[in-house]
Amino acid sequence: MAEKRNIKSLLLFLLKVGLAVLIVWLLIRRDPREMLECLRHFDYRWLIPAMIFYGSHMVTCSWRWRRLARMLGVELPFIEALSLTMQGYFFSLVIPGGALGGDVVKMGVISKRSASGSKMEGAFTVLMDRIVGMISLFTLTLVLLGPAVPLLMKIHWGQLPVDPRLNILLIAGVALLCLAGLGASCVIFFHRSVQRIPGVKFLMDKAERFGHGAVSRLTAAADVYAGHWKELTFLTLITTFFVHLMTVTPLFFLFEGLRLQYSFFDVIVAVLIGNIAGLIPISPGGVGIRDLVTITILVAGGVAAGDAKTVQLLATAIMIVFSLAGGLFFIFDPGRRKKEEEKTDGEQ
Question: How far apart are CA 115 and CA 100, in angstroms?
């Protein structure tokens, strides 16, 4: 049975890779000459600030996770937090599970390295890190969605005979997705109210007995975080400006490299909605689906299709380079070496 699950998981992953490759190939195939011309005239010096700003959001994520871990008494050296964060990006790209695959790996590693009696709390810090990131992304997108309606109403569906009013449903769908994401992210802070729903308390008690007290430890950790709501709010604001907007900034530099006119607002909206689409686990790291959505919105904003594809695919290339670089942190992980040295010393 385990072998069959592994084969099924591998086939599903290969299918996702195939989908991502297919989408990127179709995007390139439609405007190959325009894209080649763009690459020929691109000023590659602009790749340097684009990569610096993209990499900065990973450093901020590491710092944020370290702060969240400290709230639960889990001490995490910054270099180890950075290493595991980079490994998370790497595994999100190369293993099944989409954007959450890397979080699962981080949970397993931090639990293994946490002291006895705090393994559950260590894993919970990874979940809280993801929750803070999602609250920031969904809130920022909702704030910008109203002013973005004129832009999103300009989206064209190629040669498909689609009623333009479908765009209204698209906008409503994005809004509902953000609201649902916020609800799911925040529900853990209101677990006591949720327990009043008929049947929920019964299920939680069953899970408590089955998990040998895991549920009560998780709710206690949630209460600790709820008591630090001011710092959580601060971290959410930091995430908005130094994580999510830092994934947008590289595109500004890439547009400059092509010497193109662009709208800051349109680029921000396109990247944020593209990042939300990238959370859907149908391709590795959101590659393909994120590109398709971002390019479509950029074109709706008046950017030529060839230019939009060149800029977005260059941004995706930067993302892939940084994610693959996370594999080096896996190979030379300082936390693993430290644990091995401690184990060796203990045996001696």
Answer: 24
